[in-house]
Amino acid sequence: MKIDIISLFPDFIQAFYQHSIIGRAVASGVIDLDVTNPRQFTYDRHRMVDDTIYGGGQGMLMKAAPLFTAVEVVRRSVEKRRIIFMGPTGCPFTQQKARELATYDQLILVCGHYEGVDYRVETELVDEVISIGDYVLTGGEIPAMVVTDAVVRMIPGVLGTHASATDDSFYTSLLECPQYTKPSIFRQWAVPDVLCNGDHKKIASWRRQASLQRTAMLRPDLLIHASLTPQERLWLSSEKEEIE
């Protein structure tokens, strides 16, 4: 997969590309990540990428032309490509969206800055707008990195095993079960006995039940979309009654 980020702060993005799972995926050639500065596609003396707002208003908007040109330069002739603007007006980013985006051959993530971007970027250049939450950030760089990280994890070969991604919280609309490592007893807190007995069938059953219970307690809204057996739904109902 090819991922291009359009950003006024390429150094910020490039540092992200060099570390941890993302860095290893780039080094192994599983993914190809690049960042392009739209400022290089300005031709005035001061390399201005922003301007005042028509009709008045505070702040400055990023101009359409540098962003359009940057996208057109990095755009490849591939079968599946998605151009995304990172902005607060977009649809909330979810694990389901990450799985969907991982099926594309190229993603182009456009980062705004200043007061925002010329609206024609949203309506004429990109395929969709994505938001990572109902709060305001200085620019689109952090959201672009969030999307990149979540999407890259879904690509086969990036993690040690593909099961590592499918076991993550939200992949199946359930939170991940509690997990432990050595020592088996830390201070007065012990690892559940079932995880130490080597019976993989019992361990799998415990993990599933713990995942359901944790989701019901912390994020019950996720259960609406979870794939549950009738027995699991009955058990959750009894758990809910006990809590209430």
Automatic annotation (TrEMBL):
Which InterPro entries has this protein been placed in?
Alpha/beta_knot_MTases, tRNA_m1G_MeTrfase_C_sf, tRNA_m1G_MeTrfase_TrmD, tRNA_m1G_MTases_N, tRNA_MeTrfase_TRMD/TRM10
What Gene Ontology biological process does one annotation of this record name?
tRNA N1-guanine methylation
Q: Which residues form a coiled coil?
A: none
Q: Which GO terms describe its molecular function?
A: tRNA (guanine(37)-N1)-methyltransferase activity
Pfam families documented for this protein? tRNA_m1G_MT
The record's comment on protein family reads: Belongs to the RNA methyltransferase TrmD family.
Tell me the lineage of the source organism: Bacteria, Bacillati, Bacillota, Negativicutes, Veillonellales
* UniProt keywords, alphabetically: Cytoplasm, Methyltransferase, S-adenosyl-L-methionine, Transferase, tRNA processing
Which EC number applies?
A: 2.1.1.228
Places the protein is found: Cytoplasm
Q: Which SUPFAM superfamilies match?
A: alpha/beta knot
**GO cellular component labels:** cytosol
Q: Which organism is it from?
A: Megasphaera hutchinsoni
What is the name of this protein?
Answer: tRNA (guanine-N(1)-)-methyltransferase
Described function: Specifically methylates guanosine-37 in various tRNAs.
Recorded hits in PANTHER family, A to Z, give: TRNA (GUANINE-N(1)-)-METHYLTRANSFERASE
Chief location: cytoplasm
Q: Where along this sequence does the record place binding of S-adenosyl-L-methionine?
A: 112, 132-137
Q: Does the keyword rRNA-binding apply?
A: no
- Asked if the record carries the keyword Nucleus, the reply is no
